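One example copied in:
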Amino acid sequence: MPARNKEFFIHVSQTEKRLFISRPESIKGDALSPCCMTPDDVDYEMAAGKDPEMLEICGMNQQSLEYFVQHYAKTYRYLSFFKCQLIQDFSPLEDLPALEEVDLYWNIRADKLWNFEKNESLRTISISSAKRMTLKPDLLKTSKVMENVFICGDIFNNYPMESLDCFAGMPALKHLSVNFIRLKDKSLEALKTLPALKRFDFDAGMFTTEEIAWIVAKYPELSGSCLCAYNTEDAVMNDVRVCGFRKPGLDLPEQQKRLDKYVAQFNALVEKFRNEP
């Protein structure tokens, strides 16, 4: 997952920037990831003096989310929902005009995002381990100001996504990252509708080598860790990972000649696509 705005980094020791149930008697069920926060818990924890602009929230459910937004959330610029699995509707966040960045990690109930038209300051959204929201996050297109979208499945499963059309027409989108994602439709037509896009990150095996070469040829202004013949970021057990569906990892220098062959093939494809109308 790409690096976040350093301004919104929260250290685990900064309890004033973390909202969770601290009273043991209030925790029900799994103590490692409770989702039983009540409005009374919210009042109790907020009374301890929480940061008014940045907050990582753990264990919230639908009732406590709605209560928190109504009574406390208007000043927040950054909200991270960490292991709030049971929230089924994030639309209360529509009413937070100051919100600049939101991070959603691990949710099993919500099947869509929300209308972003009133979130006029929201520039960045990150969605991880939220399979139902990942399938078709079309409501992202309601934002006219969103600049960074990071969507990730998990390391054990490539979550399905209908297509890249869910991002089509976003006028301000600069950085799009889709990792551990399996596209049902791999059409690249959406790219031509993103006038501000500067960086496109994806898994090394999401597209074929030919498709990656086509993107490089047709959108030379785009950068991305896999918009090349190979990289080191996706090399787990090897020195380099050749970019493309079912392409291998290689060890250097013993497999340098093989890598050189892949690079030459990739460059030839890029040149071919550049010369096509």
The chain has five helices and 13 strands.
